[in-house]
Design a protein that fits this description.
There is one protein chain. The protein contains 7 helices and 6 strands. The protein is of the alpha+beta class and 149 residues long. The protein has a 3-stranded antiparallel beta sheet with strand order 1-3-2. Strand 2 (72-75) and strand 3 form a beta hairpin. The chain is globular and about 45 Å long. The relative contact order is 0.13.
């Protein structure tokens, strides 16, 4: 997803109304493509923008709807609230996993690619295992925080 127009088309194709609150959440996600955000972070960014009027419950509902239609990916990191990031719709349908680096000092999160666990999953599938998914979270200090310590 690259633009609000694509998001509007997606919503319409799923028979969902295009509302200002849905567009507000989508705008925040579009502006933060590389950083998974919590629902609270999304809500706070909407409030700061002063362009949209949206309550926190609506943000939760919209994220749930977006998750159901595959528009976003929901990730759970150790010891914190779920985080959400735009989904590459084509990629999301073929991959059941995600990989992230998370800084233990500033909570910077960076997705990364090149899965080295996929070969093990293929082996498990050959042995009858189904619906496999994984979430890899590597923690440590990002370059910025590593310089400070």
């Amino acid at each position: 997803m690259e633009s609000l127009n694509e998001i509007k088309s997606l919503l319409k194709s799923k028979q969902l109304r295009v509302t200002q609150t849905r567009l507000a959440v989508a705008t925040i996600l579009l502006n933060n493509k590389e950083k998974p955000l919590t629902s609270e972070e999304i809500f706070n960014k909407i409030q700061k923008s002063k362009k949209y009027d949206c309550d926190q419950v609506s943000v939760y509902r919209i994220l749930s709807t977006y998750d159901e239609i595959g528009f976003i990916k929901k990730s759970n990191f150790q010891g914190e609230a779920s985080r959400y990031i735009l989904s590459n719709m084509e990629e999301n349908n073929s991959l059941g996993h995600e990989h992230y680096f998370k800084c233990t000092a500033c909570n910077y999160i960076k997705p990364f690619h090149n899965c080295f666990v996929s070969s093990k999953e293929r082996e498990l599938e050959k042995n009858g295992f189904k619906n496999l998914k994984h979430h890899l979270e590597i923690t440590g200090l990002c370059p910025k925080c590593a310089k400070v310590s």
